Amino acid sequence: PGQGYEQAKAAISSGNDDVRAFFDALAVCHTVKIDEDGTYQGESPDEVALVEAARNVGIELEARETAGSSVIHRVRSPWGVEDNEVTHVLGFTSDRKRMSVVCSTKDGGAVVTTKGA
After folding, report:
1. pLDDT digits over 25-82, tens only?
2. Residues 93-105: what's their mean pLDDT?
3. CA 112, CA 88: separation in Å to the nearest integer?
4. Shortest CA distance to 62 belongs to which of 85, 82, 43, 89?
5. By the 8 A CB rule, do 28 and 111 touch?
6. pTM to 2 decimals?
7. 21: which strand partners?
8. CA–CA separation, 4 vs 35, rounded Å?
9. What whole-number distance in Å separates Cα of residue 76 and Cα of residue 16?
10. Angstrom distance (rounded) from CA 32 to CA 105
11. Measuring CA to CA, which residue among 36, 98, 99 is closest to residue 64?
12. What is the pLDDT of residue 49?
């Protein structure tokens, strides 16, 4: 890890909400699966690398479970463990150049997280 890694860790440690939101998005907005040995597997090496980058700074995709028609992404971070219920995935396409996930919130709403080129 280089200078960017150290800067990200420091920003997370200091409570920078923007940096936290960025790495939370990397840990949730994907279709990565976890093998039995804990290895991430994804549709592309880039997608896996982004989830690994979040893990490297302390925001780790710990589990991915199917729950009915949704998928739960369990994320462990310095501020606790959170289950993110992904109710819909808008996959990456070369035309759209981004992907999005829709996650339900505890109050019955939804949050759309998008990442892209």
Report:
1. 999 999 999 999 999 999 899 999 999 999 999 999 999 999 999 999 999 999 899 9
2. 93
3. 9
4. 82
5. no
6. 0.89
7. none
8. 28
9. 17
10. 21
11. 36
12. 95
> Three-state SS string across the chain, please?
CCHHHHHHHHHHHCCCHHHHHHHHHHHHCCCCEECCCCCEECCCHHHHHHHHHHHHCCCEEEEEEEECCEEEEEEEECCEEEEEEEEEEECCCCCCCEEEEEEECCCCCEEEEEEEC
Residue identified by tokens 């960017």 is: 4
- Dihedral sign from CA coordinates of 113, 58, 6, 3: negative
Q: For residue 69, which amino acid is it?
A: S
**Given the structure tokens 């840990």, which residue do they identify?**
27
